[in-house]
TrEMBL record:
GO terms for molecular function: DNA binding; transcription coactivator activity. Keywords: DNA-binding, Nucleus, Transcription, Transcription regulation. Belongs to the transcriptional coactivator PC4 family. This is PC4-domain-containing protein. Pfam families: PC4. Residues 1-56, 117-188 are annotated as: Disordered.
Amino acid sequence: MPPKRRAAATKSAPADVDAPAAKRQKPAAAAAATVEKGKMMKDDEGNPFWGIGGQNRRVGVSEFRGNQLVSIREHYEKDGKMLPGKKGISLTVEQLNAFISILPQLETYLASKKVTMDRPAYSDSTTTAEEEPAAVEEEVDEEEEDDEEDEKEKELKDEDHEEEEEEVISEDASEDEEAKKKKTKERK
């Protein structure tokens, strides 16, 4: 059995040997360092990051040896600075693309376990959450109008092309007839 630690006695009262050690309190700066979930910020090196909630977890983008990395990592405070911790992962763009490609399968699996996921709205990043539905509807309407205009242009081109083909065919037919007439005259 390990020996019991003795707490240093203070002048006012003797130390209680069996008393549990006081828990360390988080400094006020660490609580202030917690970032707002989903809001883009920049670290001390100018790299963008987004808070994802809980225990100073962040998603950040940085560069290492010429490669862009996306990191999902817990951070801790030391000397008033937030530093990346051991818990986390850094992905290259190639690895991130592979991860994104399996997300539909992951979502399907989680749905089979009765877990739902919020789907992000991939639109202009400058729009706010309230503006997104209207912006998406406007984009859909514009795309439909563009598709209709493209379809009309295609039909007009097809009609023009058919008329040109008919003219070429009729010209070819009349040339053939003239050539046949010449040959028959020459034979006579």
